[in-house]
Design brief:
It is a single chain. The protein is an alpha+beta fold and about 200 residues long. It has one domain (about 45-195). The chain is about 15% helix and about 35% strand. It has 2 helices and 11 strands, in the order H-E-E-E-E-E-H-E-E-E-E-E-E. It has helices at about 5-20, 115-120; strands at about 45-50, 60, 80-95, 95-105, 110, 125-130, 135-140, 145, 155-170, 185, 190-195.
Amino acid sequence: MRKTTKGALAVGAGVALLLGGAGTMAAWQVGTPVGQGTSITSGKLSVAAKGDATGLPVWAWTNASATTFNAATSRIVPGDSVTRTQVFTVTARGDHLAFTGALDVAPTVSGDPTLVAKLAAGTTTKIDVVGTPPAGVTGTGTSTITVASGSAAPADLVFDVKVTSVVAWPAGTAGSDAADTMSQTVNLAAANLTLKQS
């Protein structure tokens, strides 16, 4: 065999050995605890209806009417709307927490699905703090409540909010509402108040 060929084979073998051992090279890795004071604690947000009379929903016609709205006897038609007010107690804690309220009519409400869908699409809700809010709570007169309790707050912030929902049956064009929405009952007692972080 020629010397040049032998040299080429030797070089090739050396490269193969280097490549084969590339994945087995050792490298040091060390670690140490990062120390104290690194825990993270989450805040909270909960809501419940008041236990007294203010926790009972109050209904009234939104559109002008000479009669008082009565959930048991009044009859709504396309174009009507009723206002529902109720007071809830909110328990909240967080450095940067903001939330809005919504009356979730569907899918928990029972009754004619076509009418439920109409009412759900036309429902709007606003939320206001009742009375003087605790320090760190703002949003009276708006639709968003902001909580900034801070990490040094001694306890959760507890306050009342008044939730006002307008349940509307939008008026469409003649014949746009199906006849099967007539003489139907929708049980709004099953509606949920939902607080959504914003």
